[in-house]
Design goal:
Layout: E1 14-19, H1 21-39, E2 44-50, H2 54-61, E3 68-78, E4 84-92, E5 102-110, H3 114-124, E6 130-138, E7 151-155, E8 161-162, E9 178-181
Helix pairs in contact: 1-2
Bound molecules: guanosine-5'-monophosphate and magnesium ion (MG).
Amino acid sequence: MSTTLKLHPSHSDLESIMVSEASIKRRVKRLGAEIAETYGDEEVTVVSIINGAILFTADLLRFVPNPVRLDCIRISSYGNDTKSIGKPKMVHSLTLDVTNRHVLLIDDILDTGKTLALVTQTILKLNPASVKTCVLLDKKGRREVPFNADFVGFDIPDKFVVGYGLDFAERYRNLPCIGVLKPELQNPPEWA
Ligand code: 5GP
Ligand code: MG
């Protein structure tokens, strides 16, 4: 049986593709292997920062063979804009107990560092056995708070990107690649 794949219509809203679907697939598989090697046979409590990390977490965990417990937290720091609106706030917190557990925090992108610094500090207060962080993308040039992730998919330049979980005003999360939006689409009045 033959199937016709429809080209994702949102592709035409992109100025350029920064990371292709094929590169993401290859890198995610290797990241899974790095994580498995780091933890050995240990159980890992994965904490995914939603919504942005949803697609990345789902794909990555398929390549982590360890016993895994999964929890999600929600942080708010961006409005319908491409600029951070300041201090991140945890609006939905952990439901699993992380005391004496190996916690692996997963986020889509490390930018100023404020989000992961806040979440790491919050989790450390709960006395976990360890806390490590994994991000798909790292904009090292944008850091305002010193922070290094333990596992990084790709280092990228300082451009606002969408796709593979990353949104602009909640759109584009379902794009299978990571791309830069056309400038004229970054402030459409009807989305304000
Ligand atoms: P940080 O607290 O490190 O500045 O920001 C982390 C959060 O900001 C990410 O989880 C993501 O939600 C958002 N963010 C940072 N850079 C980008 C970007 O280029 N595109 C999108 N869509 N979100 C971003
Ligand atoms: Mg996010």
